[in-house]
Amino acid sequence: MKIFDFAAHHRALKENPNYAINAKILQRAEWRHGGSGHILTDKDSDEPFVGIAVMHIVDFRLQCSPIGSFLGSKYGGMEKAKYQFIGGRTHGKDGFDEDFARTHALLNNIQNAIAVSHNKKDMLLDEQSIRFARNIFEKRVSLTNSTVRLFKAYLYNHKEHAVPDSPTASRRTVYLEDLENPHGSHTVGTGEELKMDDETANWPVDSQYSDDLATIKAFYKAVPLRVYDENNKFVKPENVNKALCNAIAEIHFTLHHLYLPKNLPPQDSFRANIEQILILQRGKTTTSIYTSDPRAGPASTTKATHHTPPPTEAPPSKRLHTEEQTVTKGKEKEHD
């Protein structure tokens, strides 16, 4: 198996201005309005600033399967599901161990530059971990919030007019103008039909979640994580969780902020949004010697028996030996 050269990779990344230990990032990027919150933006390009970090992806709260953080419909719709994982220290990989603290400190400073409250949540969980996340499903471009509501109501009352391959599948196509003017023509102002993409139609969820997916896939599309293995080969969505478990990876991410004044107490929510993951080294498979049949006999860490051998008879202590000599000399004097 090819051994990854972490020392060489560390030297190269230190020259990259986007590597997340670079203090100049604070001068190159600034928070700007974007979506419902703010996005850390590169001042020169006016594009979201992409940071780079190398971390150990821990197996705790690793949720990068095709359903990610989704726990069932009673906790909310599948459209809110996220890929997420926690990054930590690399544990002995040349230079990267020390870089974790510097990355953490830089992200904390970036947070402080815009935070309104004292409650900075979701990204820096503690001094030893950074949470990365990304939405699995994105709203289809042609559907606004109001249109989605209209569309759901329309599908409920006119199931024969559903988007092809949607939960209430029909071969007829529904156009946006149908929702606003059900008795009018079937032309769309944008010229775009509402139809199912192959990625979402074949999204690999377990059968127990197929109904949950069916309720949203007419309105949201599934977006796979950009994850690449040691040979730069794309990792299929159903294999991502296993591939990332305990791996050392280079993570490309953007930073997003949302202030939530109605929370009690108010809080600032931050996200390190996953853009791309390059696996540098797979996690080691851990096996336990204690998983075999317990009736087959005791497990042993060595070829020898696990029982501690009985102690050998200890020689008399020096003090005891000295006392015996004193007693003997005393007896000799009595004979004299």
Summarize the structure.
By secondary structure, this protein is of the alpha+beta class.
Q: What is the element layout, followed by pairings?
A:
Blueprint (H helix, E strand, L loop, with lengths): L5 H9 L10 H4 E6 L2 E6 L8 E7 L24 E7 L7 H17 L7 E2 L2 E3 L2 E7 L1 E3 L5 H13 L18 H5 L17 H4 L8 H5 L5 E3 L4 E2 L11 H5 L3 E13 L6 E15 L36 H18 L1
Parallel strand pairs: 5-12, 7-12, 10-12
Antiparallel strand pairs: 1-2, 2-11, 3-4, 3-11, 4-7, 6-7, 8-9, 11-12
Can you give a write-up of this model?
Helix content is 24%, strand content 22%. It is α+β, with helices and mostly antiparallel strands and 336 residues long. Strands 3-4-7-12-11 form a five-stranded mixed β-barrel. The chain has a two-stranded antiparallel sheet with strand order 8-9.
